[in-house]
Amino acid sequence: MKAVFIIAAGILCTTCQLSADREGLKQEILLTEKAFEKMAAEKGAAEAFAFFADPEGVINRNDSIIKGKDGIKRYYGNSGQAGATVSWTPDFIDVSDDGTLGYTYGRYIWKVRGVSGRLTEFTGIFHTVWKKQPDGTWRYVWD
User: Fold this and answer.
1) What is the mean pLDDT of residues 98-119?
2) What's the CA gap between 75 and 55, in Å, rounded?
3) Please, what sign has the CA dihedral across residues 37, 39, 41, 46?
4) Where are the beta strands (DSSP E) in the chain?
5) Which member of 30, 45, 131, 139 lies 3.0 to 4.6 Å from 76 by CB, making a disulfide possible if both were Cys?
6) CATH assignment of 2-142?
């Protein structure tokens, strides 16, 4: 009976620890999202999307898959999006049981000024998959 109690207590403690760790990891991802958004506002989409990408990261834009940091930076640098601003906040964040992957989704607002000077605003839903890096940072593998 004592052994069963010890095993049950161990499982309960492990479950509580995992839950606490998951909440901390979700907070890390939220802070990464906000740092990403801030960099996009300060340095532009090309710099921010390339910086926060995993080396093997991909983005899906206009039914195309753009791969890798260089490809992502080129896409945002050459797609007529110079000077565009973007803002977003995750509505939901979750993390895998082993704490190595996470995902977010929420709404974004993309604003771009056309050649006429008129500001156009696009809204939508984003979904990002995050991967924990060996140095402890989070980088997206899918956006």
Assistant:
1) 92
2) 15
3) negative
4) 53-61, 64-67, 85-95, 101-113, 119-132, 138-142
5) 45
6) 3.10.450.50
